[in-house]
Design the sequence.
């Protein structure tokens, strides 16, 4: 899986933000790429 695949799936509404976040946790994309895809800053679960 690549950044391009994650972005395409998100853009086509096949993935939601939570699914993109999982891709960051698994090391598929970086937190910076998460922001490029979703437009939101990546924050780890459980942080305030």
Sequence:
């Amino acid at each position: 899986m690549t950044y391009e695949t994650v972005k395409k799936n998100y853009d086509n509404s096949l993935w939601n933000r939570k699914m993109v976040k999982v891709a960051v946790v698994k090391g598929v994309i970086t937190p910076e790429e998460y922001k490029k895809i979703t437009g939101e800053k990546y924050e780890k679960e459980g942080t305030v």
